[in-house]
Amino acid sequence: MDNLRTNISDSPSFILTGFPGLEAMEPWLAIPLLLLYAISIVGNALILVIVKEEQSLHQPMYYFLSLLSVNDLGVSLSTLPTVLAVLCFHAREISFEGCMAQMFFIHLFSWTESGILLAMSLDRYVAICNPLRYATILTNARILAMGLATLFRSFLLILVFPLLLQRLPFCHPRNVLSHAYCLHVDMIKLACADVSLNSHYGLSIVLLTFGLDSALIFLSYIMILRSVLAIASREERLKTLNTCVSHICAVLIFYVPMVSVSIVHRFGGSLPHVVHILMSVLYLFVPPMLNPIIYSIKTKEIRRRLQKMIFRVKL
User: DSSP secondary-structure letter at 269?
Assistant: First the structure.
């Protein structure tokens, strides 16, 4: 009993997990993951530079894209230190405070991304359904206010997590996490106390953020579709819908992996642990990498500016 009390009172540490059963291959597995990080960081940084320098991109749609790129950089940089440490240097131990800080930022940027995608759907709705008032509705001040409100909402919701975690005892000699980074659902599984409050609060804010945001995005596209179908010319309808393709892709690559991860966590208990890890990798690593690629391919101005930059480097 004394040993148990000692373990509870001490500040616990956690053991991060790479790819169980494939430890010998982890340095090789690090190569594709580091490539994903490089593409994500360079791609999103280039989007920010191009939007800043290209005068024709100083429009609401691209300001929201800049917010998305900043957020994707935050997602990548939140997980990079521990993933790099685990796969390249086999440094698996992380303190409770370090784990909680990483968990805070991963969830903060994930929930903020959901809010930014909702704001981008509002941008598409106004541009298509009320084009004459587009510039007067989505002013720079309102875009900034929407970005700050999205961040503030995520910050307030995630702020409760550290408070709830600090009250939990962790009495196991080895607190082994399921991933190479810290997530709230992973940490509470290792607690030696009732975690129903943590679980219920986590589920509530998932419904409040991801659930509400995805429903509003879906509703905005129903209204957009109604407006597009009212256009007489088939060519104009396709041209109008084409302006939404990049955003629809960004929404799908964010929400589909997230829903898949939730299903695997809840109903895939019999699946190999590697499957859980790969699903989480898809959820956290793929959207920040694909977003700049999609917008670079689909946006003519960004594509041209990128080609100019590449041509300049070659010279």
Answer: T
d(CA 108, CA 273): 26
Judge contact between 283 and 271, C-beta under 8 A: no
- Name 22's Cβ contacts closer than 8 Å, sequence gap at least 6: 29, 274
Per-domain residue ranges of the chain? 13-313
Find out whether 189 and 14 touch, Cβ atoms under 8 Å.
no
Between CA 314 and CA 308 the distance in angstroms is 10
The C-alpha atoms of residue 77 and residue 64 are separated, in whole angstroms, by 20
Q: Measured between alpha carbons, how far is residue 70 from residues 41, 64, 65, 260 in Å?
A: 10, 10, 9, 25
Convert the pLDDT of each residue in 10-30 to its tens digit.
Answer: 578 999 987 776 677 778 888
Cα(39)–Cα(86) distance, rounded to whole angstroms? 20
Please state the pTM of the whole predicted model: 0.91
Nearest to 198 by CA among 223, 169, 173, 236: 169
The fold of the 13-313 domain, in CATH, is Rhopdopsin 7-helix transmembrane proteins (1.20.1070)
Digit-coded pLDDT (tens) for 57-71: 999 999 999 999 999
Angstrom distance (rounded) from CA 52 to CA 187: 40
Look-up: residue for tokens 């900034």? 144
Burial of 114: CB neighbours in 10 Å, binned 0-12, 13-18, 19+:
buried
Strands (E), the chain: 13-15, 93-95, 175-176
